[in-house]
Amino acid sequence: MEVVKRKLADESGEIALRGSVILIIFIILLLGVLQVIHAYNTVSEVKEKTNEAVLAALASNASNIYDGVRESTWNARQYEDGNWESSVDTSQVLNQLVISTGGVLTSTDEIFKEESYQITDLSTSCQNTEDDGLIFTTTAKLEIFFHIGSIIDVKIPLNLEVVSTYDTKY
Questions:
Q1: What's the number of domains the chain is made of?
Q2: In angstroms, what CA-CA distances link 68 with 71, 76, 133?
Q3: 19 in a domain, yes or no?
Q4: CA-CA distances (angstroms) from residue 165 to 44, 127, 149?
Q5: What are the pLDDT digits (tens) for 99-151?
Protein backbone atom coordinates (compact mmCIF):
# COMPACT_ATOMS: atom_id res chain seq x y z
CA MET A 1 0.00 0.00 0.00
CA GLU A 2 2.91 2.32 0.76
CA VAL A 3 4.28 1.71 -2.72
CA VAL A 4 1.01 2.81 -4.28
CA LYS A 5 0.88 5.93 -2.09
CA ARG A 6 4.47 6.83 -2.99
CA LYS A 7 3.77 6.24 -6.66
CA LEU A 8 0.69 8.46 -6.53
CA ALA A 9 2.61 11.20 -4.72
CA ASP A 10 5.58 11.06 -7.12
CA GLU A 11 3.58 11.19 -10.31
CA SER A 12 1.16 14.02 -9.84
CA GLY A 13 0.63 14.25 -13.59
CA GLU A 14 -0.83 10.77 -13.83
CA ILE A 15 -4.54 11.50 -13.45
CA ALA A 16 -5.52 8.13 -14.89
CA LEU A 17 -3.79 6.23 -12.09
CA ARG A 18 -5.19 8.45 -9.35
CA GLY A 19 -8.67 8.33 -10.91
CA SER A 20 -8.54 4.55 -11.18
CA VAL A 21 -7.68 4.13 -7.52
CA ILE A 22 -10.44 6.51 -6.47
CA LEU A 23 -12.93 4.71 -8.75
CA ILE A 24 -12.01 1.30 -7.33
CA ILE A 25 -12.41 2.56 -3.76
CA PHE A 26 -15.79 4.08 -4.66
CA ILE A 27 -16.98 0.82 -6.27
CA ILE A 28 -15.93 -1.21 -3.21
CA LEU A 29 -17.81 1.16 -0.91
CA LEU A 30 -20.87 1.07 -3.18
CA LEU A 31 -20.86 -2.74 -3.16
CA GLY A 32 -20.67 -2.72 0.63
CA VAL A 33 -23.67 -0.40 0.86
CA LEU A 34 -25.62 -2.58 -1.59
CA GLN A 35 -24.88 -5.69 0.49
CA VAL A 36 -26.21 -3.97 3.65
CA ILE A 37 -29.37 -2.94 1.77
CA HIS A 38 -29.72 -6.55 0.55
CA ALA A 39 -29.49 -7.82 4.14
CA TYR A 40 -32.20 -5.43 5.40
CA ASN A 41 -34.48 -6.28 2.48
CA THR A 42 -33.99 -10.02 3.00
CA VAL A 43 -34.83 -9.80 6.73
CA SER A 44 -37.92 -7.72 5.94
CA GLU A 45 -39.03 -10.19 3.24
CA VAL A 46 -38.59 -13.23 5.47
CA LYS A 47 -40.49 -11.61 8.34
CA GLU A 48 -43.37 -10.67 6.05
CA LYS A 49 -43.48 -14.12 4.44
CA THR A 50 -43.38 -15.80 7.88
CA ASN A 51 -46.31 -13.69 9.09
CA GLU A 52 -48.16 -14.54 5.87
CA ALA A 53 -47.44 -18.26 6.35
CA VAL A 54 -48.78 -18.28 9.93
CA LEU A 55 -51.96 -16.48 8.91
CA ALA A 56 -52.41 -18.76 5.88
CA ALA A 57 -52.10 -21.85 8.10
CA LEU A 58 -54.67 -20.37 10.48
CA ALA A 59 -57.08 -19.40 7.74
CA SER A 60 -56.94 -22.82 6.13
CA ASN A 61 -57.68 -24.51 9.48
CA ALA A 62 -60.22 -22.05 10.91
CA SER A 63 -63.13 -24.30 9.98
CA ASN A 64 -61.78 -26.90 12.43
CA ILE A 65 -62.33 -24.43 15.28
CA TYR A 66 -65.56 -22.74 14.30
CA ASP A 67 -68.36 -25.26 14.39
CA GLY A 68 -71.82 -25.35 15.94
CA VAL A 69 -70.51 -25.71 19.48
CA ARG A 70 -67.90 -22.96 19.16
CA GLU A 71 -69.90 -20.33 17.31
CA SER A 72 -69.05 -17.30 19.44
CA THR A 73 -65.73 -15.57 18.96
CA TRP A 74 -64.98 -15.49 22.69
CA ASN A 75 -65.32 -19.28 22.93
CA ALA A 76 -63.14 -19.74 19.88
CA ARG A 77 -60.52 -17.40 21.30
CA GLN A 78 -60.44 -19.25 24.61
CA TYR A 79 -60.40 -22.67 22.99
CA GLU A 80 -57.88 -24.49 25.18
CA ASP A 81 -57.93 -28.09 24.02
CA GLY A 82 -55.05 -27.67 21.61
CA ASN A 83 -56.83 -27.21 18.31
CA TRP A 84 -55.59 -23.67 17.80
CA GLU A 85 -52.06 -24.81 18.40
CA SER A 86 -52.49 -27.71 16.00
CA SER A 87 -53.80 -25.17 13.48
CA VAL A 88 -50.42 -23.50 13.54
CA ASP A 89 -48.35 -26.62 13.73
CA THR A 90 -44.78 -25.78 12.76
CA SER A 91 -44.87 -28.21 9.83
CA GLN A 92 -47.94 -26.45 8.38
CA VAL A 93 -46.31 -23.04 8.77
CA LEU A 94 -43.14 -24.43 7.19
CA ASN A 95 -45.09 -25.73 4.20
CA GLN A 96 -46.87 -22.39 3.78
CA LEU A 97 -43.51 -20.60 4.04
CA VAL A 98 -42.04 -22.79 1.30
CA ILE A 99 -44.95 -21.83 -0.95
CA SER A 100 -44.77 -18.10 -0.21
CA THR A 101 -40.97 -17.77 -0.50
CA GLY A 102 -40.55 -20.02 -3.51
CA GLY A 103 -37.84 -21.87 -1.63
CA VAL A 104 -37.04 -25.56 -1.39
CA LEU A 105 -37.63 -27.73 1.68
CA THR A 106 -34.24 -29.41 2.14
CA SER A 107 -35.02 -31.31 5.36
CA THR A 108 -37.79 -31.46 7.96
CA ASP A 109 -37.19 -27.93 9.24
CA GLU A 110 -34.99 -26.18 6.69
CA ILE A 111 -35.88 -23.94 3.75
CA PHE A 112 -33.27 -22.99 1.18
CA LYS A 113 -33.82 -20.13 -1.26
CA GLU A 114 -31.22 -20.40 -3.99
CA GLU A 115 -28.41 -17.85 -3.75
CA SER A 116 -30.26 -15.74 -1.18
CA TYR A 117 -30.97 -17.23 2.26
CA GLN A 118 -31.68 -20.29 4.38
CA ILE A 119 -34.24 -20.67 7.18
CA THR A 120 -33.71 -23.27 9.91
CA ASP A 121 -35.10 -24.17 13.35
CA LEU A 122 -38.57 -22.74 12.71
CA SER A 123 -40.99 -23.01 15.62
CA THR A 124 -44.38 -21.44 16.28
CA SER A 125 -46.18 -21.03 19.60
CA CYS A 126 -49.65 -19.74 20.47
CA GLN A 127 -50.84 -17.47 23.27
CA ASN A 128 -54.54 -16.86 23.95
CA THR A 129 -55.53 -13.44 25.22
CA GLU A 130 -58.96 -12.02 25.93
CA ASP A 131 -58.31 -8.58 24.45
CA ASP A 132 -55.97 -9.03 21.51
CA GLY A 133 -57.22 -12.28 20.01
CA LEU A 134 -54.57 -14.88 19.37
CA ILE A 135 -50.89 -14.10 19.36
CA PHE A 136 -48.51 -16.42 17.54
CA THR A 137 -44.76 -16.12 18.00
CA THR A 138 -42.58 -17.68 15.33
CA THR A 139 -38.86 -17.98 15.83
CA ALA A 140 -36.32 -19.08 13.25
CA LYS A 141 -32.67 -18.88 12.34
CA LEU A 142 -31.93 -17.04 9.11
CA GLU A 143 -28.67 -17.25 7.20
CA ILE A 144 -28.23 -14.60 4.51
CA PHE A 145 -25.76 -15.43 1.74
CA PHE A 146 -23.37 -12.77 0.45
CA HIS A 147 -21.17 -13.19 -2.60
CA ILE A 148 -18.30 -10.75 -2.54
CA GLY A 149 -16.69 -10.38 -5.92
CA SER A 150 -17.71 -13.90 -6.97
CA ILE A 151 -14.75 -15.09 -4.92
CA ILE A 152 -15.78 -14.96 -1.28
CA ASP A 153 -19.03 -16.51 -0.05
CA VAL A 154 -20.18 -15.38 3.39
CA LYS A 155 -23.16 -16.47 5.50
CA ILE A 156 -24.55 -14.00 8.04
CA PRO A 157 -26.60 -15.79 10.78
CA LEU A 158 -29.53 -13.98 12.40
CA ASN A 159 -32.19 -15.00 14.92
CA LEU A 160 -35.67 -13.88 13.88
CA GLU A 161 -38.81 -13.51 15.95
CA VAL A 162 -42.08 -12.72 14.19
CA VAL A 163 -45.24 -11.96 16.16
CA SER A 164 -48.51 -12.54 14.30
CA THR A 165 -51.91 -11.63 15.66
CA TYR A 166 -55.13 -13.27 14.57
CA ASP A 167 -58.47 -11.74 15.39
CA THR A 168 -60.82 -14.66 15.88
CA LYS A 169 -63.95 -12.86 14.74
CA TYR A 170 -65.05 -14.92 11.80
A1: 1
A2: 6, 11, 20
A3: no
A4: 17, 10, 41
A5: 888 888 877 667 787 778 888 888 888 776 666 567 888 888 988 888 776 67
